[in-house]
Design goal:
The chain has one helix and 21 strands. The chain is an all-beta fold and about 300 residues long. Strand 19 (about 265-270) and strand 20 form a beta hairpin. About 45% of the residues are buried.
């Protein structure tokens, strides 16, 4: 599918960001950079979001979203949408103290037209991702297993979760899979992990939100949705739901003005070391998106004191 704009996939009937050429943050390196570790040699951010790896991961003239690192932080996978090309997963690996040039993964080897939303499993032995041929018709969860220095052929996940149209999958420490169910009005669901299988799915009982990312211990859930702070606004923002002592979820709490601007923010994820929140942000109204990162200390500032 050409020129696919995933940042507002969830608002296709009301909100569509046009992929257009626009200026982005100045580059610090080229796409073939071999910047030293960790995190491509960048100075870690504080409570103010910054563009992640401009010129290396965040490249001029395209959309990037949904980044996932291996547990050892020596591999990175993320979604890329270039104009007039299919949506693809790109990756880079840390070899010695240098990152390899980013390139396309092509896990399904052409069996599916588009691959997006990768997530490296908590043990690093599998990558889950979404694959499809046509938007809103066949989105399913696939995976590849780690071999010695490569990945297996792609396999469609054998689980009831794939009975529906689903995407944006990630995993808690206990193995449970969290994802967005497109067939169920864009609601959050999870599949219970039992002996290496995922035989049962349940809805996550939150007030609103999708493209959810679960924390390792399942004590909070990041989601995004249309801004609720002002009825006149049409952008999408990131929220966090905290788990109560009785197992229910708090109402979604906005990240505030430092993260949620008048532009579109979405596709949240947390680094395996738990230190950084990653998300995508449009560079201007209707513009292309970059990946941003910010310290996860910002999440703690939103946690209700009674929890």
């Amino acid at each position: 599918m050409k020129n696919y704009n995933f940042i507002v996939l969830i608002l296709v009937f009301a909100l569509v960001l046009n992929a257009c050429n626009t200026k982005k943050q100045p580059s610090i390196a080229s796409d073939s950079s071999t910047t030293e570790n960790p995190y491509f040699g960048q100075k870690p951010p504080g409570l103010i979001p910054e563009v992640f790896a401009p010129g290396i991961v965040s490249i001029n003239g395209r959309n990037e979203s949904n980044i996932s690192f291996s547990p050892d932080l020596d591999e990175v996978y993320f979604t890329v949408n270039k104009k007039d090309e299919e949506v693809s997963i790109y990756f880079s690996k840390l070899k010695g103290n240098k990152w390899t040039p980013t390139k396309r993964a092509n896990f399904t080897n052409g069996r599916k037209k588009e691959e997006l939303y990768p997530f490296v499993s908590v043990d690093g032995k599998r990558i889950y991702f979404t694959a499809l041929d046509s938007i809103f018709s066949d989105e399913k969860i696939w995976y590849v297993n780690r071999l010695d220095d490569s990945w297996s052929d792609a396999i469609q996940l054998d689980s009831p979760l794939n009975d529906d149209l689903v995407f944006y999958i990630n995993q808690a420490k206990n193995g449970d899979l969290f994802y967005t169910n497109l067939s169920k009005k864009w609601k959050m669901y999870y599949a219970l992990h039992k002996n290496g299988k995922f035989p049962e799915v349940q809805e996550v009982e939150i007030e609103f939100g999708h493209h959810g990312f679960i924390s390792p211990s399942q004590d909070y859930l990041l989601v995004y949705a249309r801004s609720r702070e002002n009825e006149q606004r049409k952008d999408v923002d990131i929220y966090v739901c905290f788990k109560e002592k009785d197992g229910t979820w708090t109402k979604p709490i906005s990240f505030g003005n430092e993260v949620n601007t008048s532009l579109n923010e979405g596709c949240p994820s947390i680094s395996p070391d738990g230190k950084y929140l990653f998300f995508t942000r449009a560079e201007n109204e209707g513009g292309l998106s970059n990946l941003y990162w910010v310290s996860t200390e910002i999440i703690d500032t939103l946690r209700p004191v009674e929890l």
